């Protein structure tokens, strides 16, 4: 099984990179993509955990935003970690998350919700990328909500009055940087309407022109109608269809391997990188 979109506790997952690799191996995953948000800090530990039977696809889920404020996530896979311009954008995006978190907390406090930045930071593992899931975990720890799902559905979703956007490149720029770094670019769950505003069909013309390689179609947050429309877009622009779990560990329903990418589509996707960067034990 090929699962190209997962998270560790280096961003907003709950498993360490080592635990993630071990769980993937136990689940029958043969190709695992590690795609933490805006960071590659988990790569070394994941590599050190490799054993025969599983290949590791190193990447990152890069936060992007359109000019009219639609949040977009681009999976960058198999890129050169030493590409300076891409590394700088990832750093800038991570740094901006702190100021964003402070603003969200201020809005929650104004609504009478007792939560502090210290509460949130207590939920981070060392070196992790700060994100709303850590705020959700802090709300759970203080018994304000029961779990992450409730935190997002009630307080932290994109249409919430507490929501604050943050710095991120445009989707086209993110794709261009991934390609410049020799990697491949796949847009993650682009029609997941339950998360908030989504891209228009027309947006894919510019994304394809920027070098987009694939679209994540099989994902639990996209219904069959949304998937069908994405299949038409894949055909129209000669892109590659993927499916992934978007696994985060405990706190989210997503399970490793619940959606996967076919071997043929993975072979096509991997061939578009400028070097063979899949890591094997």
What's this, in brief?
This protein has 281 residues and is α/β, with parallel strands linked by helices.
Describe this structure in words.
It contains 10 helices and 7 strands. By secondary structure, the chain is α/β, with parallel strands linked by helices. The protein has a domain at 99-156: DNA polymerase, domain 1 (Orthogonal Bundle). It has a 7-stranded mixed sheet with strand order 1-2-3-4-5-6-7. Helix 2 links the parallel strand 2 (31-37) and strand 3 (55-65). Helix 5 crosses helix 6.
Strand order of the largest sheet: 1-2-3-4-5-6-7
Please state the oligomeric state of the protein chains shown: single chain
Sheet with most strands: 7 strands, mixed
Terminal CA distance reads 17 Å
SSE order and pairing:
Layout lengths: L1 E5 L10 H10 L4 E7 L5 H6 L6 E11 L5 E7 L6 H27 L6 H5 L10 H10 L6 H9 L14 H10 L3 E5 L14 H8 L3 E5 L5 H14 L2 E4 L19 H8 L11
Parallel strand pairs: 1-2, 2-3, 5-6, 6-7
Antiparallel strand pairs: 3-4, 4-5
Helix pairs in contact: 5-6, 7-8
């Amino acid at each position: 099984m090929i699962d190209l979109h997962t998270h560790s506790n280096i961003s907003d997952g709950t498993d360490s990179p080592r635990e993630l690799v071990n769980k993937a191996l136990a689940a029958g995953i043969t190709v695992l993509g590690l795609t933490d948000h805006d960071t590659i800090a988990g790569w070394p530990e994941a590599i050190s955990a490799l054993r025969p039977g599983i290949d590791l696809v190193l990447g990152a889920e890069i936060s992007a935003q359109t000019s009219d404020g639609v949040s977009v996530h681009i999976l960058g896979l198999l890129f050169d970690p030493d590409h300076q311009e891409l590394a700088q954008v990832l750093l800038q995006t991570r740094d901006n998350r702190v100021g964003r978190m402070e603003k969200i907390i201020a809005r929650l406090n104004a609504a009478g919700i007792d939560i502090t930045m210290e509460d949130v930071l207590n939920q981070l593992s060392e070196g992790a990328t700060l994100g709303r899931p850590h705020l959700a975990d802090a709300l759970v720890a203080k018994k304000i909500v029961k779990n992450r799902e409730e935190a997002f559905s009630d307080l932290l979703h994109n249409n919430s009055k507490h929501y604050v956007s943050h710095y991120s490149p445009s989707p086209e720029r993110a794709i261009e940087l991934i390609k410049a770094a020799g990697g491949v670019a796949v847009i993650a769950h682009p029609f997941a309407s339950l998360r908030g505003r989504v891209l228009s069909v027309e947006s894919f013309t510019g994304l394809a022109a920027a070098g987009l390689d694939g679209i994540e179609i099989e994902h639990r947050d996209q219904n069959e109608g949304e998937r069908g429309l994405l299949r038409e877009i894949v055909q129209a622009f000669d892109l590659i269809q993927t499916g992934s779990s978007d696994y985060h560990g405990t706190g989210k329903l997503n399970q490793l391997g619940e959606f996967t990418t076919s071997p043929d589509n993975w072979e096509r996707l991997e061939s578009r990188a400028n070097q063979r960067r899949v890591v094997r034990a």
